[in-house]
Design a protein that fits this description.
The protein is of the alpha/beta class. It has two domains: 223 residues, Spore Coat Polysaccharide Biosynthesis Protein SpsA, Chain A; 69 residues. Helices cover 48% and strands 12% of the residues. It is built from ten helices and seven strands. α2 links the parallel β2 and β3. α5 packs parallel to α8 and α9 packs antiparallel against α10. The longest helix is centred in the last third of the chain and has 32 residues. The chain is elongated, with a radius of gyration of 25 Å. The two termini are 31 Å apart.
Length: 316
Amino acid sequence: MISIIVPVFNEQENIPVLYEKLVAVMEALGKPFEILFINDGSVDESERVLDGIGLNDERCKIIHFSRNLGQTSALMAGVDFAKGNIMVPIDADLQNDPEDIPSLLEKLEEGYDVVSGWRKKRKDPSLRRVLLSKFANKLISLVSGVRLNDYGCTLKAYRSSLIKPVKLYGEMHRFIPIYVSWQGGKVTEIPVRHHPRIHGESNYGLGRIFKVVLDLIVIQFLAKYNTKPIYVFGAFGLFNIGIALLTFCYAVYLKLFLDVSFISTPLLLLVSLTFIMGTLCILMGLLAEMLVRIYYETQNKPSYLIKNTTNLDPAP
């Protein structure tokens, strides 16, 4: 089964058109499907429109949030409730084209685990937004090592087995290909169409660029130091202690050779602050190490991931 996941926020005019297009495309494929509409706290008539669709078509599953929680939460709800072995998220604003779904599925059948859409010819009205998006995509590709031209495109196709275990927060839905790559999955990208918005207003602001950068720092931390946080906290702590020692030596040098009193410079204050900060960072690293062990041991969760085995019985 194929699960189409549609996050919705104030898209009352676009929902009926999108529904008709999705049904037409999926029925033409001849494969079983379901459409999950996740109403992310819309304040227009989206809830009423969605309920009407759900009453007339049992293939449409409707989920209403009590308030606006963001696209990542909406996508995670869709993933949790989806029953298909393939998931295809798509925006509700009609800028993604449902007719690109068959191309994504065809590429998926070539052995890939994620096929990401690339809005090669974007139709956004703001050139600044397009340029900032390109910069963000270059930055994410450089830092993560997963080369994609368009992380922000919602239209993608995933294998459910690799997406179900993933838990996302903040604005991290755009980083799902990176998570799949961590699991050993194969990721690729194909060009898809992109249409200008006709109804409603865009819910994306330039402030999301800063959120993306911060989330990128988080996923890099999780990728490299998920099981050894002491390497981050400890390194920063030792760096501060090193600064404290060098500053103290310099203060002693000034006192012995240049007859500069300790109290006439702020060096001792700097020594105290950096030494205390370094000590606290190391203690935080030790605390983080304890939390990591509690996390893995209480959930009986291994710190490794096995792809397959040969002549080996399942672990007890």
